[in-house]
Design brief:
Layout: H1 2-19, E1 23-29, E2 37-44, E3 47-53, E4 60-66, E5 74-80, E6 83-90, H2 98-106, E7 115-121, E8 126-141, E9 146-162, E10 173-187, E11 195-210, E12 219-233, E13 241-246, E14 251-254, E15 260-263, E16 266-268, E17 280-293
Parallel strand pairs: 2-6, 2-8, 3-7, 3-8, 8-9, 9-10, 10-11, 11-12, 12-17, 13-17, 14-17
Antiparallel strand pairs: 1-4, 4-7, 5-6, 13-16, 15-16
Amino acid sequence: MLNKFCLFLLFLALFVTSVNAQFVREYRVPSSSDINRVSLSFSTYKSQTQVKRSVGIDPLRIHGHLLQANILPDFQSSKTMNHLVASLVHTNIESDNLGKSITSKLFSTANDFDHTWDVGLTSDHAYDLEFNLGMGTADFDLAQLAVSKLKIKSASADVYIHSSGLTPNLMVMDTLLVLLNMGAVDLHQAQFTQAEKVILEVNYGKINLDFSGRPMQKSQVIAAVGGGTIFLKLPSAVHPIKITIKTTPLCRTAIPTYLKSMGNNIFVTKGYTATDPKLMEFFLDVGVGSVTIE
């Protein structure tokens, strides 16, 4: 009887281990002297995703830990002249719909997501990045990278974009686009993205914009929330800044006294000049919720 009981415990342990087993996937594009531009399309349905500079010379390294093997990812890459085009697609055979994703988001913790992805880039290549994140969290560290475009879309996610060590993106970014149905966008020390145009849209959630550092170039920022909050932190008033706010009676606004009203919900700093080469223009739009500027 004791032997049978021990055997049962052994099988139980093996079963639990197999249920919680992780499937590790590694994708790598080897270095080539004729590659100078990389376009990456990355799609995953439920994950914690991190993008940052990696050690090494390979233009692209992707490392994944998958807790379920519903469908293994599909990775493809091709090279034309000096341009590398790569894509990773990881879908779910359960086909979570949007409603299920939002419900899961409301009743899950940050560690509940099934998969983790680490995307490693280098300082020696220019990148166009497009991420489609079904739901989860995403951390984009642009320090010492050369990102010309960054587009992020998600049904339900929290997205954090920053530059560790206060090291900027190595080139002027044409467009930074984040579209979320539900979640949060946290853009920290945003001047280090060197983005000429920033477009952030969240149907339900919040947008945190930290532009407290000295502007590095002319930029236009559009931030819109259907229901939720926008928080904007500005640099010193000596810098040229223009802010246009669109709200409804269901939105509260908190605007510092150092901003001068120009009428029609337009505010400027004392350093504002319409022709300044480093002018920062903000367009803030909230339906239901609040706008806070400090």
